[in-house]
Amino acid sequence: MALTPLKLTSPKQRQGSRYEELALEYLQQQGLILVAQNWLMAKVGELDLVMLEQGSAWDTLVFIEVRQRKLGAFGDALTSVTASKQRKIIKAARYFLRQHPTYHDYECRFDVVAFSDEGSVPEWLAGAFIAKAWS
Predict the structure, then answer these.
(1) How confident is the model over 66-114, as pLDDT tens digits?
(2) Could you report the per-residue pLDDT of 21-78, keeping only the tens digit for each?
(3) Residues of 43-57 as b/e, b for ≥16 C-beta within 10 angstroms?
(4) Distance between CA atoms of 23 and 109, rounded to whole angstroms?
């Protein structure tokens, strides 16, 4: 009898993964190039998507947080990226750059792609927040 491996993901993790895939497809249609997906540094944090936006003068490394939240009493998906969450993303981005020195001198940007529900068009907020004292 063949054993089926256990899936260690919760329904919420599977839902998040589905929205990350939708965001990835959308951003690739906009011309961004995938560098990393679900990049994880233990005890530091996770980056949903890291993508490269090629420009005529220079390229930009884009760290993207994907959010999904139904509009309700607690706000929408865009506003759910709190200052605390921003600090975690920035910290993870610093570690990413240390581990990938190829991108160390790239311009960096922090974006959010938000969904209100599965059928909704993604809302892409480029430059959603900035890293103070980046270096």
Answers:
(1) 998 665 545 565 666 788 899 999 999 999 999 999 998 899 999 999 9
(2) 999 999 999 999 999 999 999 999 999 999 999 988 899 999 999 998 665 545 565 6
(3) eebebbbbbbbeeee
(4) 16
Q: Which two tokens stand for residue 125?
A: 């907020």
Q: Which domain holds residue 48?
A: 11-129
What are all long-range contacts of 54-58, with beta carbons under 8 Å and residues at least 24 apart? 58/106, 58/107
Kindly state whether residue 66 falls inside one of the protein's structural domains.
yes
* Number of domains making up the chain: 1
Q: What end-to-end distance do the CA atoms of the chain give, in Å?
A: 55
pLDDT in tens, 22-37: 999 999 999 999 999 9
Report if residue 2 sits inside a domain: no
**What H or E segment, with its residue span, contains residue 14?**
helix 11-29
From CA 90, how far away is CA 51, in angstroms rounded?
Answer: 15
